[in-house]
Design goal:
single chain; alpha/beta; Rossmann fold; six-stranded antiparallel β-sheet; five-stranded parallel β-sheet; 12 helices; 52% helix; elongated
Length: 649
């Protein structure tokens, strides 16, 4: 499946660098910290990967452009170095059709497709340009969601880009619980052990099996719950409900009798209530009379005060007449001016009246008035005394009546309280019994639904069992057309052991067999065919041995995929295959590996593009291949680092 790179253009702040790739082997080597691994990471960055922000790239990199051939298209992928969550993709095909779109790296189903009706992100677009329909897989092993998700191009990249940091610590993510499922799906996709139809059938089967198991468990739990209460059928529950409803009717009848008896048996308090009403009326009358007496006393006290004032006025009048008799005024007692006198001596010197006559009250008349006032005052005093005695008597009577009323109130309240206590005790006890019966009946009615639910679940389980068998038959039919997948896996096993032998990996000898576990997809080496001595990547021990194990497996997968035209990109980026392997101490391994790599590039993998990053350059001795070699160093201008002008860590 044609997929290779032609050029990588890097725009830095002070320069623009261009890297050309060979269609067969591009070999980058040199000193540490000169940008060898960053070259591979920048290719991955344009394909949606994350970029390791080295000091040089963080400070100087502006944009990255990757030119590639994807399927039948010439493609240009452009991505900004900072704050970039999308890649600008421009393409054209042999017929001249062109397209351009800004493809988000993360899926964006909510925003709708970015191209046609099934392309939502960069991964979908790469598959579209490559001419491959991405495989749909289940979201999780035990997911209850029927939704299928697409296998991402980033998952396929695990088998095309062997990162330096993971070469001796991870075997294609098959050991990671989170992502190993996707890595397995990629292998099944490559060898043809899984089609989209088979994936959907597997997902449907898992869904039905999980649902069926859940319903069986639910039915068992319901039956177990009913068994704890001694019920095995709906009829037993209904029979007990009828008994409880009969007991409930009896309790309701008893409560009605208690309430009716309360209305009839409270007549014993009627006499006390009648006496209290009469007593209240008498108290009201007495209080009215007392109020009237007090008002009369106030009136008489006011009248007495008036008589006493009149008596004082009479005394002052008599005294004034005696003192002022015969007095002639020369000046006005009001303003002090001289009084005008007329010629007539008979005129009054003060008021000036000429017909003045001497008016003198006889002494006997004044005495009679005084005696009359004294008599009136005495009468009022006697009346006040009588009224005050009457008030005192009324107040004593009222106190007695109130005491009597309080006694009767207490007597009535005590009698009613005693009766109400008996009534409430009986009523509450009966109401509690009724509430218990009602709650029991409600609970049993709810329980009555459980046997129905069990029957419904059993019917659903039977239906699901039929659907499960039908899907299993469809899966068997689908797998019958995938018999070549096992043959391809055997081809990978054979190619893998050949690569290990050709690279002279320590611990691998003639007669050893490689077997790939069809469940875990982890290859294991059986020394001399002895399964008891098997070992794998995770038990290889040596870091250098793990690195070669990783690389040789990738070479075997690419070899078989190319030979049988399986859906795997035709490029392989290997960052430091000789990691942990000294080129001087292990020179034989160093030379054997690269001779094997060049033989593959010249032969079975002549259409596969290799991008190699390593410490030292090992040129091909016999193979005739197109190879581009670049040496990265700091002190030689003829072989500059990735960022030529940068001076720093």
């Amino acid at each position: 499946m044609n997929f290779r790179f032609t050029d990588l253009t890097l725009q830095f702040r002070e320069s623009r660098e261009h890297i050309r790739f060979s269609p067969q082997v591009s070999y980058f080597h040199g000193q540490i910290g000169t940008g060898k691994s960053s070259t591979a990471r920048l290719i991955d960055f344009c394909l949606g990967g994350d970029l390791e922000r080295t000091p040089a790239l963080s400070q100087e990199l502006v944009t990255v452009q990757l030119s590639a051939i994807v399927g039948e298209h010439e493609v240009l992928l452009e991505r900004e170095a900072k704050n970039s969550n999308a890649v600008k993709v421009t393409w054209k095909n042999a017929s001249g059709f062109e397209g351009s779109v800004l493809a988000p790296i993360r899926p964006s189903q909510e925003k709708g497709p970015i191209w046609e009706d099934k392309v939502y992100n960069l991964s979908d677009l790469i598959f579209y340009l490559w001419g491959i329909t991405p495989l749909k897989i289940r979201r999780g092993e035990s997911s209850t969601e029927p939704e299928m998700v697409r296998l991402s191009f980033r998952d396929v990249m695990w088998y095309c880009y062997l990162e330096q940091d993971r070469l001796d610590s991870s075997f294609f993510n098959l050991e990671s619980p989170i992502v190993m499922r996707k890595s397995r799906y990629v292998m099944r996709f490559i060898v043809g052990a899984l089609t989209e139809r088979l994936g959907e059938l597997d997902a449907g089967l898992a869904k039905i099996q999980e649902t069926r198991s859940e319903k069986i468990v639910q039915a068992q739990q319901i039956l177990s719950f009913l068994g704890k209460f001694g019920y095995s059928s709906e009829g037993e529950i209904n029979s007990e409900i009828q008994q409880i409803e009969a007991q409930l009717a009896v309790a309701n009848s008893k409560l009605a009798q208690i309430r009716d008896g309360n209305k009839e048996e409270t007549h014993f308090a009627d006499g006390l209530r009648a006496e209290l009403r009469q007593l209240n009326e008498q108290l009201s009358r007495e209080e009215q009379v007392l109020s009237e007496l007090k008002d009369r006393i106030k009136d008489q006290e006011s009248l007495k005060a008036e008589f006493v004032t009149a008596k004082f006025k009479l005394a002052r009048s008599s005294l004034a007449k005696t003192v002022l008799a015969g007095v002639r005024f020369e000046r006005c007692p009001a303003c002090g001016r001289p009084i005008r006198r007329e010629d007539k001596d008979e005129s009054c010197p003060l008021c000036g009246q000429s017909d003045i006559q001497s008016v003198e009250e006889p002494p006997l008349r004044e005495e009679m008035i005084r005696l009359d006032l004294d008599s009136r005052i005495t009468e009022i005093d006697e009346s006040l005394e009588r009224h005050k005695k009457a008030v005192a008597e009324r107040e004593r009577s009222l106190r007695n009546l109130r005491e009597k009323k309080n006694d009767m109130d207490t007597q009535l309240e005590s009698a009613l309280r005693e009766y109400d206590s008996r009534f409430l005790a009986n009523a509450l006890e009966t109401e509690k019994t009724i509430a218990a019966y009602e709650e029991r009946a409600r609970g049993l009615k709810r329980l009555c639904e459980m046997p129905k639910a069990v029957a419904s679940l059993e019917r659903e389980v039977d239906m699901l069992a039929g659907e499960e068998e039908a899907i299993k038959r469809d899966i068997l039919k689908e797998k019958e057309g995938l018999k070549t997948a096992d043959a391809l896996v055997q081809e990978i096993e054979s190619s893998f052991i050949q690569s290990l032998l050709a690279a002279r990996v320590p611990g691998v000898e003639d007669g050893d067999i490689a077997k790939i576990n069809r469940t875990t997809w982890i290859p294991e080496i059986f020394p001399g065919g002895d399964e008891s001595k098997k070992w794998s990547f995770h038990s290889a021990g040596s870091g250098g041995k793990k690195t070669l194990f990783n690389v040789c497996f990738a070479l075997a997968v690419h070899k078989v995929a190319t030979q049988y035209n399986r859906p795997l990109p035709t490029f392989l980026i290997i960052d430091t295959p000789m990691k942990n392997i000294g080129e001087d101490v292990n020179k034989d391994i160093f030379e054997a590996f690269y001779n094997h790599l060049y033989e593959l590039a010249e032969g079975p993998l002549h259409d596969t593009q290799f991008i190699i990053i390593d410490k030292e350059y090992f040129p091909p001795k016999f193979a005739k291949i197109d190879i581009v070699e670049r040496y990265f160093t700091v002190n030689d201008k003829r072989h500059p680092p990735l960022v030529p002008y940068y001076q720093g860590p």
